[in-house]
Amino acid sequence: MTDRLPIKMLHDRVLVRETREEGERRSSGGILIPSTAQVSKRLVWAEVLAVGSHVRAVETGDRVLFSPDDRFEVEIAGDDYMLLRERDLHAVAAERNDANTGLYL
Amino acid sequence: MTDRLPIKMLHDRVLVRETREEGERRSSGGILIPSTAQVSKRLVWAEVLAVGSHVRAVETGDRVLFSPDDRFEVEIAGDDYMLLRERDLHAVAAERNDANTGLYL
Amino acid sequence: MTDRLPIKMLHDRVLVRETREEGERRSSGGILIPSTAQVSKRLVWAEVLAVGSHVRAVETGDRVLFSPDDRFEVEIAGDDYMLLRERDLHAVAAERNDANTGLYL
Amino acid sequence: MTDRLPIKMLHDRVLVRETREEGERRSSGGILIPSTAQVSKRLVWAEVLAVGSHVRAVETGDRVLFSPDDRFEVEIAGDDYMLLRERDLHAVAAERNDANTGLYL
Amino acid sequence: MTDRLPIKMLHDRVLVRETREEGERRSSGGILIPSTAQVSKRLVWAEVLAVGSHVRAVETGDRVLFSPDDRFEVEIAGDDYMLLRERDLHAVAAERNDANTGLYL
Amino acid sequence: MTDRLPIKMLHDRVLVRETREEGERRSSGGILIPSTAQVSKRLVWAEVLAVGSHVRAVETGDRVLFSPDDRFEVEIAGDDYMLLRERDLHAVAAERNDANTGLYL
Amino acid sequence: MTDRLPIKMLHDRVLVRETREEGERRSSGGILIPSTAQVSKRLVWAEVLAVGSHVRAVETGDRVLFSPDDRFEVEIAGDDYMLLRERDLHAVAAERNDANTGLYL
């Protein structure tokens, strides 16, 4: 395999990574997998690292809100990442957003 | 993570919060999860805090009626919120509505 | 919460209430929940109180025929109501209908 | 409730009633409910009493062939009827049909 | 019920009857119902007696190939028939077909 | 039944036959049915004998690659054949194909 | 069967092969099949050998990221390959990609 092939997301895929704050709060590597369907309705935040060409509403650097059930996991160069589809994202936190909701991450 | 990123709902998502009245009546934090499918057909009200750009029929400040089965949960700054999709909302209570149904919340 | 917010049905939703006659005949509050799938194929009548803006074929005051399986339940100001979607209604009884079927409710 | 509200079928619904002949042959009131999925593939005939405004291929007075699995049941003025959707009807027997199949009911 | 109402198939329905040859080979009335899902993948032939107005590719008198799982059964005037949908037919054997496949029934 | 009716595939159906090589290698008549869902993900090759009029990408004489789960079985004149749909074919091996993949059957 | 028929992927299919690096790291032939649904959310990389004519976003020689659940397996000339559909690919690693994500395989 050629060394160092740049990676690009396909279609509507969004690559995200757990943020430091989330990680420290839970003090364990990786997302906690809920043990029941009911509990898995709790959404989590992660930071966007790359998006496919069909993705419209989020950008690299944004924080996005999603259900752990909708994620795929991948290890790249020894680090853990997650893959989502844009349609499964519920909200986005970003500096460019208007502050009119009064809600901040 | 940057401090205080404004949060925006995506697409057809609606962020709601249990109203004080609902909370006091039940005297417990969080929605009661029905134990059977049959019972879960009972709808509940909550207050709209933010809506995605595709949402047409409800606004911030409205009360909306929904099935607890259709909600996702998220904690923001220590408070509990719920996320819904507009298509899963059954009714809306708002001052701007005509009073012709004779039904009030 | 503001007092007395008028309630409006959304989209294709239809708010109905059990009619007095149905109630007296069964002599118990609330619809009887069939214990098996087979039995639940028996349809029931209720009176329309409000309809969403997409509803085309029924009006407030009509009686509509539906399967108890398709209903949601909601309590408003201490009274029990049911919520349906127009596509789940099988028939309508109303004064404005032609009497050509020879069937009356 | 107002006395004697005329009843109209909605959309693609078809109201049918078991014919006398079917009833006498089986000598019991109501359709026999097959005990297994396999057996329930046997179709039955009934007479059309009313059709919704979307129904195209059958008329009041026709006999229609359907699977008992696809029916809903309703009691009107003490008599038992069945409700079907046009798409679930397999065949129609009517005087207006050409006799070119050589099959008669 | 009126005597002798001609029967017409609706929409995409196809009425078929087991051919004599099939019947003799199996020496029993009615199609053998496979006991497992796997076995039920074996297709069978029957003769077309009537087709609905949406049917395009087969005609009365053709032999058609289908899965027993896709059939409904009906008794007309004491004889057993089967009802299929055109989309569930896999192949047709007819004199009008070109013989270029080299396969004959 | 008329003798020797030519058989034609309908719509998107593809009639295939196990090739001699496949048969000899396995030394048993008929495709081995995998015992678990996981194993059934292994694809097999067969030779195309006839195609329906909607089939675009394969021709009589081609070898096609498919999952045994997607096949139906039929016996014609004492020989065993399989029926597939074009959309369930994964690859085709034919002399007319460019050799640019470097893969040969 | 004719010797050496060139193989072509159909429609949206993508033929891939486990890369040497992946193989060495795991030191066993074939992809490890996860024992639970949860675990199977971990994505893996493989090298593209051939693509169908509908495939738009990946080319022969690319590395693609996919879920082992979405693969079919096939043996060609004694070697093991996998078949995927383009829509099931999450990301692509290739020299032609911009390096703006800062992620490399």
From TrEMBL, chains A, B, C, D, E, F, G:
Pfam families: Cpn10. One of its GO terms (molecular function) is ATP binding. The keyword Chaperone applies. Keywords: Chaperone. CDD domains: cpn10. Belongs to the GroES chaperonin family. Together with the chaperonin GroEL, plays an essential role in assisting protein folding. The GroEL-GroES system forms a nano-cage that allows encapsulation of the non-native substrate proteins and provides a physical environment optimized to promote and accelerate protein folding. GroES binds to the apical surface of the GroEL ring, thereby capping the opening of the GroEL channel. Heptamer of 7 subunits arranged in a ring. This is 10 kDa chaperonin.
